[in-house]
From TrEMBL:
Lineage, top ranks: Bacteria, Pseudomonadati, Pseudomonadota, Gammaproteobacteria, Pseudomonadales
Superkingdom per UniProt: Bacteria
Pfam families in the record: FAA_hydrolase
Domain Fumarylacetoacetase-like C-terminal residues, every copy: 103-259
Protein name per UniProt: 2-keto-4-pentenoate hydratase
Amino acid sequence: MSEDFQPNALADELYLARRQRQPGVGLAERYPLATLEQAQQVSECLITRYLADGQTIAGSKLGLTDTRMQAALGLDSPLIATLLSGWQVNGGSLDISQFLLPKLEMEVAFLFSAAIDDPEITDVALQQAISGVTVALEICDSAYQGGPRSLFEAVADNLSSGGFMLGEQYHPADPLALTELSATLTNHGKPIAEGNASQCMGSPWNACRWLVQERARDGNPVQAGEILLSGSLGPMVPIQAGDRLELEMGYLGRLGCAVV
């Protein structure tokens, strides 16, 4: 490890930046990260600060589910980050002042009805452990001034997590239908982003199964009531006050969001 590696000090500054809604200045220079393992250690320290402040774990999210992006960054699998209960945005209205550099991603959300500790779980058993699937928007954000400049910085900041919005209606977890999903995000009725299931490990179902199996192998099994955001189906989109967004995603329906 680098002599400059200070996981707790960096986690403190990332946490404070989010709490005060003031981006951390010079974090990359003062706390250089040399490896993915270092970045993940910082992220773990960061989450412990949220938990100590009364937050609870809501589930997980996957990042870098596009295999082309993985290859470009020298990875052979997605990355996992933590979702916290206080990050869920309800009511269809998003207060942009609560974030630093908010951007949206089009996601699929899985809600688990049972714990899963089988690293070789079958599709049938996985379907039985999922109470429903819905359309979702992830609000990506960053405590780094100007946003992360490297993969390691994004990972240290819990994969640039900021919040999430979920659809009101849950639907059956249909592996075939999920493979055929397409997504369109509009602003005031005009398309601003499009994507499909192929950008998410070929299908959000594949991403869900991988996450469940990976967490079981790590001794941190998915629990009943947890949510999974399975990875973006398209590009990340910056937002601003006055936006009127609507995400349409096949059989999963629609999700509206007014940015104020």
